[in-house]
Design goal:
CATH superfamily of the largest domain: Response regulator
Strand content: 5-15%
Distance between the termini: 38 Å
CATH architecture of the largest domain: 3-Layer(aba) Sandwich
CATH class of the largest domain: Alpha Beta
Strand order of the largest sheet: 2-1-3-4-5-6
Radius of gyration: 17 Å
Order of helices and strands: EHEHEHEHEHEHHHHH
Structural class: alpha/beta
Length: about 210
């Protein structure tokens, strides 16, 4: 996997680069702030950006938002020391594929990267629970956008399984008897129709609005 590291601490970047390369990943660029991360992403088009939150000039949240809007095929995974729930929620809403803490064990870290590469949420179970609890909170209005009415029967099947916790393309394909490429197509349609950025947001939206039983 071709990876860009964005972190303002050079010592941490050096250590992370060595760790990634030892596992066979290719580190094709490093950025010391969010502005540089966005510029380098445009230029070298990595598969994945490992993004710190607290950086000068442009922070990780804003950089993630810019990259996700302009280059949606590039996956962004937040790698931070911050355990603030508000940062987690903001990061996912900005389009991050995952949110990882810097105190993770190496095995868990690389497992999460593999999940991100497959298009699955890169979240530890604890953070995933916090995220779903937040997105499942009731909101003031109960009238969802009209886009949900355009979901096909198959897309609703995919959505129901995602709410049940089946989020990987492989498992969705197996449950539905479809190819992984077909599942990817349906997931992308759901995201586009509901105007959401990632699967975690989709699950939270479905829970809030009662789209599935």
């Amino acid at each position: 996997m071709r990876i860009l590291i964005a972190d303002d601490h050079s010592l941490f970047r050096d250590g992370l680069r060595s760790l990634l390369m030892a596992e066979g990943h290719e580190v094709i660029g490093e950025a010391k702030n969010g502005r540089e991360a966005v510029r380098l992403t445009r230029e070298i088009k990595p598969d994945l950006v490992l993004m710190d939150l607290q950086m000068p000039e442009v922070d990780g949240i804003e950089a993630t938002r810019l990259i996700s809007a302009e280059m949606p095929n590039v996956k962004v995974v937040i790698l931070t020391a911050s355990e603030e729930e508000s940062k987690l929620f903001d990061a996912i809403k900005s389009g991050a594929q995952g949110y990882l803490l810097k105190n993770l064990e190496a095995d868990t870290f690389f497992e999460m990267l593999d999940r991100a590469q497959r298009g699955e949420p890169a979240l530890t179970p604890t953070l995933a629970r916090k995220l779903l609890q937040e997105f499942a909170k009731p909101i003031e209005t109960t009238a969802p956008p009209a886009e949900e009415e355009t979901l096909t029967a198959r897309e609703r099947e995919v959505l129901e399984l995602m709410v049940e916790g089946v989020t990987s393309n492989r498992k969705l394909a197996k449950r539905l008897g479809l190819s992984e490429n077909t599942v990817k197509f349906h997931v992308r349609n759901i995201l586009d129709k509901l105007r959401l950025h990632n699967r975690a947001e989709v699950v939270g939206y479905a829970l809030r609005h009662g789209l599935v039983t």
